[in-house]
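> example.struct
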């Protein structure tokens, strides 16, 4: 984990005024950054417009394969400042498995329509861009148990690279409680998705969301406001899971983040 903290003075035209830009978080692949700037300033990252709160807070993240540099642009009353952020690369676990039955590697064609429909539900939930500011508060572990799978790892099955693991697996007995890692609004609550089984997604504001997967019970519904620590389901092995565990993920819009970087050490 790399902690990135910077305070920069952005000089306005004429030099009579200045605004402070602060960034903190993890400037690394899979990392999340929280920023603060002068209220009323506009901010963009690599050409994507961000949306600061009225108080000047904003959030963004870096994907698993993010390039080594990102460009943050802040504009206030016509004074434009450009800042480069160095993104630390990481090494990922790659595991090759051969000799698997084909049906365990590739879903049968008759399920294609279902999978496309369910992926659209997940994408729509991740695209939520609310005004909530729960993303500013510390996150908590959603379940008790050892970590059995890490973000960014990848399997090559029968010679075919599969999608990298997009979250953190927490091993726990079936039925163990699952709690909201942070406050927010439930944007997805499904009991039986093909890949993820019992699935809940919670929006924490400004594109940051968390997802809870393979649950045996879903205790919330779309639109519910939940506080941090509220029970939202139970650990299970639904969907494409070989044993009971909670898959916990985080994303900034479509950018998958390493949830371990959001959580306190334990």
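> example.seq
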């Amino acid at each position: 984990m790399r902690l990135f903290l910077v305070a920069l003075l952005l000089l306005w035209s004429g030099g009579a005024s200045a605004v402070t830009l602060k960034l903190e978080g993890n400037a690394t692949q899979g990392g999340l950054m929280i920023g603060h700037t002068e209220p009323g300033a506009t901010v963009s990252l690599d050409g994507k417009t961000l949306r600061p709160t009225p108080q000047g807070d904003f959030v963004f993240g870096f994907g698993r394969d993010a390039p080594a540099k990102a460009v943050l642009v802040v504009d206030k009353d016509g004074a434009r400042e450009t800042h480069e952020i160095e993104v630390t690369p990481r090494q990922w676990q790659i595991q090759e498995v051969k000799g698997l039955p084909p049906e365990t590697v590739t879903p049968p064609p008759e399920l294609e329509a279902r999978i496309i429909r369910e992926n659209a539900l997940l994408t729509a939930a991740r695209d939520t861009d609310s005004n909530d500011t729960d993303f500013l508060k510390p996150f908590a572990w959603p379940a008790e148990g050892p970590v059995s799978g890490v973000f960014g790892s990848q399997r090559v099955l029968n010679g075919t690279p599969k999608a990298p693991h997009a979250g953190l697996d927490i091993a726990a007995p079936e039925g163990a409680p699952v709690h909201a890692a942070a406050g927010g609004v439930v944007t997805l609550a499904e009991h039986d998705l093909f890949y993820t089984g019992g699935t809940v997604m919670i929006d924490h504001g400004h594109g940051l969301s968390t997802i809870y997967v393979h649950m045996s019970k879903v205790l919330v519904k779309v639109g519910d406001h939940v506080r941090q620590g509220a029970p939202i389901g139970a650990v299970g092995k639904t969907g494409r899971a070989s044993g009971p565990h909670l898959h916990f993920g985080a994303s900034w819009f479509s950018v998958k983040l390493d949830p371990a970087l959001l959580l306190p050490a334990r």
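> remarks
The radius of gyration is 20 Å.
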